[in-house]
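Provenance and format

Records in this collection were gathered into a single text stream. Each protein contributes a sequence line and a token line. The two records reproduced below are adjacent in the stream.
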Amino acid sequence: MSTGERIAAVYIPTPPAASGHMPDGAPLDSGSVMIAHSNLSHLSERNVRLVGHMPLAGEITLDSTFTVPWGEAIDVAYDVASDDPANGRMWTIPWSAGCAESFGPIALAHTRLGSAPAGYYPRKVRVVVQGYKSSETIGGNDTRMYIMAALTTGPDTPLRSGLYVTGYAQRTAATPGARTFVIDLDVAAPVRPAASWRSRGSGLEAPANTTLTPAWCWVGWYSNTVLSADRIESVSVFEVY
């Protein structure tokens, strides 16, 4: 079996539970070795990797996520007509301190085999945000809280970097309270390697580089509350199958 190959896309218990454990030092037959190889390949593909975690972003309002930060942004323009967060546009916020966080760089792992188009696809990047939505209404209308996420090709904000994929989630004052927002950033196409990173420094062995695909995960938030703030309590980013 070649490296990474699996007998089936499942974990195969071996030996069977009724047979007990493999004794230390016991010889392995070729069939058991193939199953162990398949299981290792399967677990390597399906493991969950924590990319980053940020606790306690704090209270958020229209002033903290939109009004004040836009005065600190440069080389960007906000179009009221088209940049409504309800359509998932990344221009809803300036992606500056107070309304966004960045995680990366992440070396994308190309472990999913796709067919449309054919090739190896990166694993999904999952954004999990713990938050709280207030019950404030303005002029009889429910206030809204948006969580936005983007996987970018460079370290700059989603306003200036290339975008692999974006996503967003929301909650309104009609359903106030604690909420877990989950956004899966799924790059739905093969991605070519775009950088070379040092994987072994100089020393007794010659230095070595690895060609890979770097990405940065940006998570931002927007709220139009004024008097009763919404909250971002934590942001976590994982790499999942």
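Adjacent record:
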Amino acid sequence: MVRSFAPARYPECMDMDVARSTPALRVILPGGSGQVGQVLARYFQERGHHVSVLTRLPYAAPWQTVHWDGENIGPWTEYLEGADVCINLAGRSVNCRYDAGNRQQIYASRIHTTRLLGRVIAGLADPPKVWLNASTATIYRHALDREMDEATGELGGGEAISKWRRAPRTWEFSVGVAKAWEAAFFSAETPRTRKVAMRSAIVFSPMAGTAFAILSNLVRLGLGGRQGSGRQFVSWIHEQDFARAVEFLIRREDLEGPVNLAAPNPLPNRDFMAALREAWGVPNGFPAPTPALELAALLLRTESELVLKSRCVVPGRLLDAGFQFDFPEWPEAAEDLVRQWRHRDD
């Protein structure tokens, strides 16, 4: 099941001299104030492109920030006119309990916002050349048996997760949102704009408050053992490869439709946590059995699905198109992220 790809650099995306020699892009990032938005804004800004982040709360940054509410047409639409690319990242965090209020916000912040952008882009005189819309690797079924790529991957919904259990209702909700999100995106009538749905795995960044920070804190506290059975697969991607893959998709005019943004080698949770412990120099970690995880999720007001669902997602279309990962293997990615984290504390 594991694929091996040697780290390499994709010249068009990573060579800074080449990046600076290409025409500057106008990049618009609706909902780009979170972790992934900051990764992309910084990446494109450092390469000489003009970046505008559409956000409810404009903030001081090296790039431009513009107010929008994600619900209504307003002056922000002028920034999309003549833009090269729109990368929509809008969506309420799923790190919460899926009660009725949070479900409504999770759904509306993704589907309604995508529909709004579709209406706006359809009405522009000079719409963006390409629209990349956030999606999620969670759209695929719980998979312990095989990899899920774009061509043969099976979407989730109603599957059994063991001989005795079907997927919990909260998992059904997540898959339903993902499907509705992509349906809203692809149903938008934007014939002059190429569209790519980014089915992203967890993006790991050495930033406070991220998944990497949370898992690293567990490791350093001696709690970084396997979670649940430890058999469930973790799909992941290093922030550097995520940003490079996004630029690759912008440049490749022949690519559209759903694209998995994930490293080519997902691995079981027990191996994932072991590699993270080794990167931090922590030899052991207490495991977290499923009942303990369920209780912790309840106390922390989040959902255990985030660590218990098996996501075995691979980037079939990226690999077929020639994209090469700088960090195809988790141990090397973990070492780099830990090194960056330690450097930021110096």
